Amino acid sequence: MDFRILGPLEAVGASGQVAKIPPRERVVLGMLLLRPERTVSVDQLVDAVWDDLPPTTARKQILICVSVLRRLLANVGFAGEIGSRPPGYRLQLGSRDRLDLQDFEALSVAGSAALREDRPGDAMEAFRQALELWRGEPLAGTTSHLLHGAAVALSERWLSVAETYADVRMRLGVRPDLIEDLRLLTASHPLRETLHSRLMRALAQAGRPVEAIEAYNTARRTFAAELGLEPGEELRRLREAILAGRQDAELATLVGVAAD
């Protein structure tokens, strides 16, 4: 069975059947999937479902939610269990069950290990596979302040891996698709300086310094309009280095990237 939280929350059986899970039970399942094989307390589940206004029957209703989840997941072939473990419940995955978050973390760790061992090609492939697991906003379709906070943290993790993936691709040689990917990322996250710096470096490395400076100017206008601020020191130093015609190895040190 596949559990997916890197996008809309889904529980998909081996036959492709998607479990139809009501909103309250989706929140409970989301909390359990964020901490697979670890106990999530009833108090945490109550907070996730009702935020700060739980009814007096909240703990009993959580018991009912878990019972409903057990039945719905069993109907689509879940081989694991949602076990009662004081002070709450634990989702135990079966041997054939998959959770996309676990796969993402495993691939990210493998990519980082490959980098440390100077295997950039293997690192690039591991990071690529990790990023492809994402299908949109994490835990979409759930309503909970706790799950929203977790989704924000997961999105930040995705961006961190996406930046490292871009660094490895630059190390192996800039291709047009990398520049396009970085343009899309900066458009989606216009206030993230580290993405702007990578776009500037990729353009400079590709022999397009004029476009790199224009990318800086775009970032500067955005920061001024949205934050009333100038770009940070790193971005300013990178601009100066590009204008001075510095080489890629030198540019890499300005954005905290290891280069050959």
Compact overview of the structure:
This is OmpR/PhoB-type domain-containing protein. The protein is mainly alpha-helical and 260 residues long.
If you had to describe this structure to a student in words, what would you say it looks like?
- By secondary structure, the protein is mainly alpha-helical.
- The protein folds into 2 domains: 2-97, Winged helix-like DNA-binding domain superfamily/Winged helix DNA-binding domain (Arc Repressor Mutant, subunit A); 173-260, Alpha Horseshoe (Serine Threonine Protein Phosphatase 5, Tetratricopeptide repeat), CATH 1.25.40.
- 61% of the residues lie in helices and 8% in strands.
- The protein has 11 helices and 6 strands.
- Strands 2-1-6 form a 3-stranded mixed sheet. A 3-stranded antiparallel sheet has the order 3-5-4.
- It is elongated.
- The protein starts with a strand and ends in a 6-residue tail after the last helix.
The CATH C-level name of the largest domain is Mainly Alpha
Supply the CATH superfamily name of the largest domain.
Answer: Winged helix-like DNA-binding domain superfamily/Winged helix DNA-binding domain
- Listing every helix as H and every strand as E from the N terminus to the C terminus, the arrangement reads EEHEHHEEEHHHHHHHH
- What is the C-alpha radius of gyration, as a whole number of Å? 22 Å
Distance between the termini: 42 Å
Strand fraction? 5-15%
Task: Please tally the helical runs, counting DSSP H or I stretches of 4 or more residues.
Answer: 11
Poorly predicted regions: none
Shape: elongated
Predict the CATH topology of the largest domain.
Answer: Arc Repressor Mutant, subunit A
Domain count: the total is 2
CATH architecture of the largest domain: Orthogonal Bundle
- The largest sheet has its strands arranged as 2-1-6
The chain-level mean pLDDT equals 94
Largest sheet: 3 strands, mixed
Q: What's the total number of strands?
A: 6
Q: How does the helix and strand content classify structurally?
A: mainly alpha
- Helix percent reads 55-70%
Domain OmpR/PhoB-type: 1-93
DNA-binding region: 1-93
Pfam families: BTAD, Trans_reg_C
Family: Belongs to the AfsR/DnrI/RedD regulatory family.
